[in-house]
Structures
1.
Amino acid sequence: MKREGADSARGDGEDEKDSSRGAERRGISRLALPAALVLALVAACGFGLLWWRERSDQQLRTSAEDAATRMVTDLATYSHEDFEANIARVKSSATPEFSDNYTEVAESLRELVVNGKGESTAEIAHAAVESISDEEAVVLVFLDQHILNVAVPDGRQDVSRMVVTLQRHDGEWKLQDAQTV
């Protein structure tokens, strides 16, 4: 009988260990669900932040590309009939430095364009952002320009590539530089 008691005592100890392990498992499983939820929430916030940054970067790139397209179109489109309107249009979307330089160049070409009855219509074939930050963008622009004047009455097609530098002023892109390459 002693054996039975000993076996019985041993069995009780094992039962206690089993119930202790069960309680530990229940405690762990009770902590696992909240921990998993917190981990999932942190991961969701991290992915959400990455998505938001990517979306913001893409919006910035798109706005710079659109601005460069519009500005190069304005630069390369002109008419002898209203040369002043073209100058004003370009200057309205330019930095003060570019505006001053453009005014000098346009004034030196005014007589040639007006007397030569010059007209140009520009179309952007393609534009792509080469580099961008919150304050500056460099955009590559492929330009098709149809030019008419007294020397070329039937017109001619010019194809150009330009590197356009934009600066952000008060949340708007302004033309800082445009170079034909």
2.
Amino acid sequence: MDVRALLTPSDEDPGPFYFLALVADDAVGEQVAFVNFLSKNGPPHYLWEGEILVGRRPDGAKGVGTEVFALAIEVLFSETPAQKLWGPIATDNTASLRMAERLGFKWEGFLRQHIPMASGVKDARLGSVLKSEWELPFKLDREEHV
């Protein structure tokens, strides 16, 4: 898997910063995951909201989302002043709920009718991880991934 990470500031001052991590399958070069982090509180940019979109790998491998999101969190906490990453996860999205728990997210609350979907507005659990709590769940060779 080839992972590219990009940290870019917005054009507005004091605008939010955006962090993007793209992942492509080595064999066919298709994008299989996309991570977006957004700083919502302006400078000093301590609080960030995150989202991840994960596709299916042609080889059927599992755990791509966890690996990519962990790498993105590692870059976020090591390259920015971020102290907290948070985000809502639909209560019926069991794979994302499990991934968040594996990555050390703590549940902070419940958001009723929070995520609009084609099938209707979904309830969500609000989870977060603090920089002081963050521990990469696997050995990372940054040269290989970034």
